[in-house]
Amino acid sequence: MKTFAKSFGIHPLTAEDIRMQEAREKVELFRSYYFVSFHTFENDKESEDYLEPINVYIVVFREGILTFHFSPITHGANVRRRVRQLRDYVDVSADWLCYALIDDITDGFAPVITGIEYEADSIEDSVFVARQTDFKTMLQRIMEARRKVMTLMRLLSGKADVIKMFAKRCQDEAIQQDLSTTTAPVNARPRANIALYLGDIQDHVVTMFQNLLAYEKIFSRSHANYLAQLQVESFNSNTKISEMFSKVTLIGTMLVPLNLITGLFGMNVKVPGGGVENLGWFFGIVGVIIVSIAGSFLFAQWWLKKLGNEEDDMPVMSSRRSIRSLGLRRGRDRAKSILSFPNKYE
Questions:
Q1: How far apart are CA 25 and CA 5, in angstroms?
Q2: Which range of residues forms the domain containing residue 85?
Q3: What is the average pLDDT across 169-182?
């Protein structure tokens, strides 16, 4: 970096920003060049650093540009291909190359945002039809989509200000050209004809940022709706389980006395009817069991019906109160006049 700084006359502050990989996006003017710091991101979906920011530093001279980055990017190749296609129609200057590089970086966000748009539509359509077994998968989809949105919003948040500052430098150049055409500028400034291109980039950045805000609201609403749906399904499942356990409890309550009867007659001692040769005692025991089951069932129905009637007959407390309930007293307890008090001077 020292060799580059010495060879091209790069200011030590610029060299330090590049060497220390300054993360802040900015535009700075110097005597023989201006310095642009801009962020792109890793667009390889198979990479572990997908959507991680990559710092791109552009040093723009009057006759050319220098770009510095510490990760492989494709923007330089895209700009060279664009130059080959448009060099017969466009005045390819150093300022135009800087604009083309910034424009290509900005356009790199469009495919990712389009994918997020499709994902938002898919999640919003499937959030109410997802089964309970898809709980983990659906939540992972929503959280991954929200993570992408927040990452892109963080990458786009400072670009509008940088481009606005860049356009302002171009306007200052135009004003300076109108005021004086003979005096050389103190600092190198971008040419005024680039301001129109920068306005187009700024519109794209603002539009993409607004779209990301809308997608974040969609994902947030889908997240809340899906959690509410899971709560309803969990409540219904708990209700069904409670009903099943109540039935099992009722059956168990009916079978406990029957176990007592069979246990008493199944003891290894002398019991009534043990020496009888006919089946009278057997059918008698079976009859008692059947009567016990029927009696328990009828008692349970009567008890449940009684509880239901008591709940229906409970009085409803009215929000109004009668005048008598306000604590006013009648007769001799009401307020007395002054004449009714005894006079000690009489």
A1: 21
A2: 2-238
A3: 58
- In the chain, how many domains are there? 1
Measured CA to CA, the distance from residue 220 to residue 36 in angstroms comes to: 35
Which residues, in sequence order, are bridge partners of residue 57?
37, 68
Identify whether 31 is part of a domain: yes
243 part of a folded domain: no
306 domain-assigned: no
Cα dihedral sign for 202, 208, 211, 215? Answer: negative
Whether residue 34 lies inside any domain: the answer is: yes
Taking each helix axis from N to C terminus, what angle separates 135-156 and 109-126, rounded to the nearest 10 degrees? Answer: 150
Q: Whole-angstrom Cα distance, residue 120 to residue 110?
A: 15
Quick: pLDDT tens for 252-297.
777 777 777 777 777 776 777 767 777 777 788 788 878 877 887 7
- Cα–Cα distance for residue pair 52/13, rounded to 1 Å: 26
If you ran DSSP here, which 8-state letter would residue 66 be given?
A: E
Residue 37 gets the label, from left (phi > 0), alpha (psi -120 to 50) or beta, of beta
Residue 314 pLDDT more than 80? no
CA distances from 255 to 69, 250, 268, 296 (A): 80, 9, 22, 10
